[in-house]
């Protein structure tokens, strides 16, 4: 039987108690590092400068995001802020929910890092860099950094002193190597899945731009003026129409009643916050009473538009697999006439660049941006014949399903990683060395 010992962390809540194998060392971060360095502040931009990694370049799931990179003037002590392979980057300043995001550099990077990031370099004779990275991910998952950070107005921070004092646990180097090898393989699969998702989304965006403006197999085009008087060409068989002229009935605002706790025997109550950017429903379901839902239940082919706030413009096409649904007051329902407008075609159109350009020009500015039913009714659409609409929607449905499949696969891998981390990082499951 494996002998275990209890470890209690002085900074943690009562949930921060682990039973560890007797042969694992308990120490602090300071004893296993060779360097800990905060980055430099820069409010300036310089296209000829150096890339500076910032807090938005570290994702919540522990990856580096290179999509939005800023260049700043080179600091005089540039060499102090380099990023080498196996450097751990710790987000030391952020909101309370995001404090402590952590990533590891898989290669040398010709970048620097801001004062909101702390770079950690370890003594590889004492700890595998990836091991410490995983421990820091585990700490954030268990809200450790929330409990030790200093909180100011809208921001929380963790200094180098607090970070160095954080207690960690270490099996032997060979055991660390075996454990990190297992978990890094799962990480590699997650990264490859992310790449597939990104490639598929790029393909989808290109297809949407082509299909929603040029259609399928057309050879002859006619010039028109579309959004903002911009000259444009569309297929000869197409026309331009307003959304309201393609619907069976007038748009409808949702119910202005309070939600009740989710009950599968009651209709689901769709609120503006329940709709994801992709147009699906998230998992935070609530219900509405049958009496309150009367007159607001959704049917197949109906689509909701978000009308206010940061989520304005998002849409949801009713899916019968979501069960019985009613919709709330900050949403507007449109019911396309299926002989003129395919609902799936409309849904895909609301994810196009043309739609969002139109939307940005039609906000009613105030405390929050707002687009009302009258404004949405005048949404201009490039209209293929109904049969071509359906073919276009089917093509885009196929590629959307591929993205969804890969997102589900990524979620399963993340659950696998989480379970393995729980058991391998605490010695509940031992590996042979």
| CATH superfamily grouping of one domain | DNA methylase specificity domains
Query: Based on DSSP secondary structure assignment, what is the total number of beta strands?
Result: 24
Strand order of the largest sheet: 4-11-7-9
Helical content stands at 25-40%
Cα-atom radius of gyration: 26 Å
- CATH level 3 topology of one domain: Adenine-n6-DNA-methyltransferase TaqI, Chain A, domain 2
What is the mean pLDDT?
Answer: 91
Low-confidence stretches: 10-16
How many helices does DSSP assign?
9
What is the subunit organization of this protein?
A: single chain
User: How far is the first residue's CA from the last residue's CA?
Assistant: 18 Å
Note the beta-strand portion.
15-25%
In short:
Its EC number is 3.1.21.-. The longest helix has 42 residues, at 173-214. This protein has a 4-stranded antiparallel sheet, with helices on one face. A 4-stranded antiparallel sheet has the order 18-23-20-21, covered by helices on one side.
Written description of the protein model:
The protein is α+β, with helices and mostly antiparallel strands and 433 residues long. Among the domains are: 144 residues, DNA methylase specificity domains (Adenine-n6-DNA-methyltransferase TaqI, Chain A, domain 2, Alpha-Beta Complex), CATH 3.90.220; 145 residues, Adenine-n6-DNA-methyltransferase TaqI, Chain A, domain 2 (Alpha-Beta Complex), CATH 3.90.220.20. The protein has 9 helices and 24 strands. Strands 4-11-7-9 form a 4-stranded antiparallel sheet, with helices on one face. A 4-stranded antiparallel sheet has the order 18-23-20-21, with helices on one face. A 3-stranded mixed sheet has the order 6-5-10, with no helix packed on it. A hairpin with an 8-residue loop joins strand 1 and strand 2.
